[in-house]
Design goal:
By secondary structure, the chain is of the alpha+beta class. The chain has five helices and 24 strands. The longest helix has 14 residues, at 20-33.
Length: 393
C-alpha cells in the first residue's frame, strides 16, 4: 500500500472547466484526509483516482472500473493494482511531494568568524602556545596579530586557557604572559580584541594581573627578559627596582651590575635597561630600604624633569639651576628636610647612571653617586652609608 504522502493525479486531463479548480485544490489535501473528504456532491470519484462531473458520468470515453486503481471507500487509500508502475502521465509529482525540477531547500548555516587578537612583549626566540576551547592550539613566535585556524560559528562561545611560553633553548628566560578578553561569544564579526601581554615592567604586570603582590616578576623592557623586584603596594604599586645599596661601603660607584637587583644588595640594572624602563615610566622614587614595611623616608618626583633625565641616563637633577626653589620643586619629600635637595653649584655637565643625584656645595645634601649613598652628606664618611633604593613607575 502506498503511503498517504503520495500525491494523487488523474489520467484524464481534469481539464473540464468545472473540475479543474477543485481538483487542484483537493489533490494536496487528499493525501492525508482521503479524497472523499473534499469531493462535493456534484462530483463523483473516477475509477482511476480522479474526479468527474456527474453530468459526464455517461461519457463513452470514461474508463471502466478495470482500467485503473480504485480507492477504498472507508479510508480513501488506493486499492492494490496489478500494475504497480505508473503511466507516463501519472508522474506529475514524486512520492516525496517535491515536483520534478524543484531543487531541495538549503537550510541556512550560521556564519563562522575568526578568533584572534594581539601578542605583545614576547622576547625574540621565545614562543607562546595558545589554546581555544580546549582543542584548537596555536603557537606564536612573534609580537603582533594572531588568529586561530578554526573559525567559530556566530553565537558559539570561545575560551582561551592559560598562555604557555617556551623560552629560547639555552638562552632567554621564560616569560609569564597574561590573557585579557580571552572569553566571550562570537557575534557577527571577527573577534580580534584578545590581548596576550608579556609584561615589560612591574606597572604593566600590575595592569594585566591586578591581584599581583610585591615580589619578583619576569619583565621584558629591552628584548632580554629578566627577573625584577616589584613593589605592588606603595602608592598604588607598579614600581620597578632599578638600584639598591646596602649601606656601609656600598655606593653606585662600587655596586655590581645586575640583574637581578634586590633589596639589601649592592646592585643596579645596566644603563640600557634603566633607560628603557624610564622610557616606559613617568615617575622616579628613592627611599630608605624598609623591607616588607611601607617606606617612611623617601622622595618621589613631582615633575617630569627627573624621569626625563633618567631616560637619557643622566643624574636626576642634571641641568637644574642652583636656586633652592627649583631643586625642591622637582620632588615630594617625606621624612627628610627638603633642603637636602639643594645644591650650591651646578652638577657636572655629563654624569651617567648608576650615579643618581649629587648636591655640590651642600654639606648636608643628598648624595647617591660614586661611593656615597646618604640622605645627609655631612654624616657621610668611610663606609658610612644609608641603604637606599631607586624605583621607577
Amino acid at each position: 500500500m502506498r503511503p498517504h504522502t503520495t500525491v494523487l493525479t488523474s489520467r484524464r486531463a481534469l481539464g473540464r472547466s468545472r473540475a479543474v479548480g477543485l481538483g487542484a485544490a483537493c489533490l494536496a489535501v487528499a493525501a492525508c484526509l482521503g479524497v472523499a473528504a473534499c469531493i462535493p456532491a456534484s462530483l463523483t470519484l473516477a475509477p482511476d483516482g480522479g474526479v468527474e462531473d456527474e453530468h459526464d458520468a455517461g461519457d463513452a470515453s470514461s474508463p471502466t472500473p478495470d482500467s485503473g486503481p480504485s480507492l477504498d471507500s472507508t479510508n480513501g487509500e488506493a486499492a492494490p493494482s496489478d500494475d504497480a508502475s505508473p503511466d507516463a502521465g501519472e508522474t506529475g509529482a514524486t512520492e516525496t511531494g517535491v515536483p520534478p525540477g524543484d531543487a531541495p531547500v538549503d537550510v541556512p548555516q550560521a556564519s563562522s568568524y575568526a578568533v584572534g587578537g594581539t601578542v605583545s612583549g614576547l622576547a625574540p626566540g621565545n614562543s607562546i602556545t595558545l589554546e581555544d576551547n580546549g582543542g584548537d592550539t596555536l603557537v606564536v613566535n612573534m609580537n603582533g596579530p594572531f588568529a586561530f585556524a578554526t573559525r567559530v560559528p556566530s553565537g558559539v562561545s570561545y575560551s582561551l586557557g592559560a598562555a604557555s611560553v617556551v623560552s629560547q633553548p639555552g638562552g632567554t628566560l621564560a616569560q609569564t604572559c597574561y590573557i585579557a578578553n580571552g572569553q566571550g561569544t562570537v557575534g557577527t564579526t571577527t573577534v580580534n580584541d584578545i590581548q596576550v601581554t608579556c609584561p615589560t615592567s612591574c606597572l604593566q604586570t600590575l595592569g594585566v594581573f591586578p591581584a599581583a603582590t610585591s615580589g619578583d616578576y619576569v619583565i621584558n623592557p629591552t628584548g632580554a627578559p629578566f627577573q625584577a623586584q616589584c613593589d605592588m603596594a606603595f602608592d598604588g604599586g607598579g614600581w620597578t627596582l632599578l638600584q639598591a645599596t646596602k649601606g656601609l661601603c656600598c655606593g653606585p660607584g662600587n655596586a655590581t651590575a645586575g640583574p637581578p637587583v634586590v633589596s639589601g644588595s649592592c646592585t643596579y640594572l645596566p644603563i640600557a635597561t634603566a633607560k628603557a624602563l624610564a622610557a616606559l615610566s613617568t615617575s622616579v622614587h628613592v627611599r630608605s630600604s624598609s623591607g616588607a614595611s611601607p617606606p617612611t623616608t623617601y622622595i618621589t618626583s613631582a615633575t617630569t624633569t627627573p624621569i626625563t633625565n633618567l631616560r637619557s641616563g643622566y643624574l636626576l637633577n642634571q641641568g637644574e639651576s642652583v636656586d633652592a626653589g627649583t631643586d625642591q620643586a622637582q620632588w615630594s619629600v617625606v621624612g627628610n628636610p627638603a633642603t637636602m635637595l639643594d645644591m650650591a653649584t651646578p652638577v657636572p655637565i655629563i654624569d651617567l647612571w648608576p650615579d643618581v643625584y649629587t648636591t655640590p656645595g651642600n654639606p648636608a645634601g643628598f648624595v647617591l653617586a660614586g661611593s656615597g649613598s646618604t640622605w645627609n652628606s655631612s654624616l657621610d664618611g668611610p663606609c658610612v652609608n644609608d641603604a637606599l633604593e631607586v624605583y621607577v613607575r
